[in-house]
TrEMBL record, chain A:
Role according to the record: Plays a role in the assembly of the F1 component of the mitochondrial ATP synthase (ATPase).
Matches recorded under Pfam families: ATP12 (PF07542)
Gene Ontology biological process terms, A to Z: mitochondrial proton-transporting ATP synthase complex assembly
Organism, as annotated: Terrapene triunguis (Three-toed box turtle)
Protein family (similarity comment): Belongs to the ATP12 family.
Gene3D superfamilies (alphabetical): ATP12 ATPase, ATP12-like
Superkingdom field: Eukaryota
Protein name: ATP synthase mitochondrial F1 complex assembly factor 2
Lyase recorded as keyword: no
Keywords from the named record: Chaperone, Membrane, Mitochondrion, Mitochondrion inner membrane, Transit peptide
Transmembrane portions of the chain: none
Compartments it resides in: Mitochondrion inner membrane
From TrEMBL, chain B:
CDD domains: Complex1_LYR_FMC1
Superkingdom of the organism of origin: Eukaryota
Protein family (similarity comment): Belongs to the FMC1 family.
Species whose genome carries this gene: Terrapene triunguis (Three-toed box turtle)
GO cellular component: mitochondrion
GO terms classed as biological process: apoptotic mitochondrial changes; dopaminergic neuron differentiation; mitochondrial proton-transporting ATP synthase complex assembly; motor behavior; negative regulation of lipid catabolic process; regulation of type B pancreatic cell proliferation; response to toxic substance
Name of this protein: Protein FMC1 homolog
Length: 288, 113
């Protein structure tokens, strides 16, 4: 177990390679007859900058890679409204080693989505997409067998539904039918008006978290700081965890998905929190 | 209901993650903007009156979320590098897995590969 941990901490491939070492080929090259049909991952861009820093412009905070300003995929200037978010994005860019792996930079991806808005969604469409998840919410969909899973779902998911019903003063309920629970229109209106109170940036983060967890209730639990991200991911993957305990864990699939889900959900909620807060520090003088 | 643990533990784990990040960059982790920001934020919220502990909880939750993000990204990348980063094996390697060798055909296969 120690060796496995070491491998994970230092992010090195295992010492004894399981495959014969292959010289890296840039894409499937048709000149070599043998390599034409095998898949090689596409070569990634190399890290072309040494230092990452932050500066403040008119629109907000910008990221500088060496002396160049970071731009979105549609060539707009990358500006964020919050300094903490800018620092987090700069840390993401700083943590790239040798090559740029854009699939690890979740906060940058979210910022690009908000700035470019490639699917041209306005705020109403975002809110509608988010509330639509309630009809097929994970914690409302129950199974009827096996009995262990039914019990687990009742114990873990019912408290979440009760919390959401109490917090937002709505009715949700759960169901075992294939059509899902019958959500009254008043519930949907309540959630719509609650989500409308967030600005577009935070809403993008919330909608991303909802899409990852496949559950509006769990996402609201994390956004309202009721449960931590790890617990929300565990509740979202409850059936998978049950099957893992029954049949065993496959590291390259189960753990891979678990960490990816955790990373994305944490990125979504952090994005939402950082874009919706505004903090002021009041210094109190000591009375003496 | 958030069982986040102690803020000190979260801070120390966050600094550890930042040390991993700065190992990639090659610079000492104390120079990083994230380190300064975290230090200021934790110090600023330490001395507050106990009635306003909601801000402390919010900061702690945010720090725990950021820690989850950094840790999961690192572990996901490690798993990716270990299992999914290499492409397919070539036919020679696939045959070599079970101890076979592809036949030598000096006259060519007779059809285009």
């Amino acid at each position: 177990m120690w060796r496995r941990c070491q491998r994970l901490f230092y992010a090195r491939p295992p010492q004894t390679p399981r495959l014969c070492p292959t010289p890296p080929v840039a894409g499937p090259s048709l000149s070599l007859p043998g390599a034409a049909r095998t898949y090689t991952p596409p070569t990634e861009r190399k890290r072309f900058y040494q230092n990452v820093s932050i500066s403040q412009g008119e629109g907000g905070f910008e990221i500088n890679l060496d002396h160049r300003k970071l731009k979105t995929p549609q060539a707009k200037l990358f500006t964020v409204p919050s300094e903490a978010l800018a620092i987090a994005v700069a840390t993401e860019w700083d943590s790239q080693q040798d090559t740029i792996k854009s699939y690890t930079m979740h906060l940058t991806t979210l910022c690009n989505t908000v700035l470019d808005n490639p699917s041209q969604r306005n705020k109403d469409q975002l809110i509608r997409a988010a509330v639509k998840f309630l009809e097929t919410d994970t914690v409302c969909y129950r199974v009827e067998e096996p009995a262990g899973l039914v019990e687990l779902q009742k114990n873990k998911w019912d408290p979440m539904i009760e919390w959401a019903e109490k917090r937002y003063n709505v009715e949700i309920g759960s169901s075992t039918s294939i059509l899902g629970p019958n959500i009254p229109a008043r519930t949907k209106d309540t959630f719509t008006s609650h989500l409308a109170s967030y600005n577009t940036w935070a809403l993008q983060g919330i909608e991303y978290a909802i899409a990852q967890l496949k559950s509006l209730i769990l996402s609201m639990g994390v956004i309202d700081r009721h449960i931590p991200v790890e617990k929300a991911v565990l509740l979202s993957r409850l059936e998978e965890e049950y099957q893992i305990q029954r049949w065993g864990n496959v590291e390259w699939a189960h753990d891979y998905d678990l960490y990816e889900l955790r990373a994305r959900t944490a990125a979504g909620t952090l994005f939402a929190h950082l874009c919706s807060e505004s903090s002021t520090v009041k210094h109190k003088l000591l009375q003496d | 209901m958030a069982s986040l643990g102690s803020p000190l533990r979260t801070l120390r784990s966050l600094l550890r993650e930042l040390r991993y990040v700065s190992a990639q960059a090659g610079r000492p982790y104390r120079d990083m903007a994230a380190y300064q920001h975290l230090r200021e934020a934790f110090r600023a919220h330490r001395i507050t009156s106990e009635k306003l502990c909601r801000a402390q909880h919010e900061l702690h939750f945010q720090a725990a979320t950021y820690l989850c993000l950094l840790r999961s990204v690192r572990e996901h990348l490690a798993l990716h590098q270990a299992y999914h980063a290499r492409g397919e094996r070539s036919t020679e390697e696939a045959a070599g897995l079970v101890g076979l060798k592809l036949p030598q055909q000096p006259g060519g296969k007779g059809w285009d590969p």
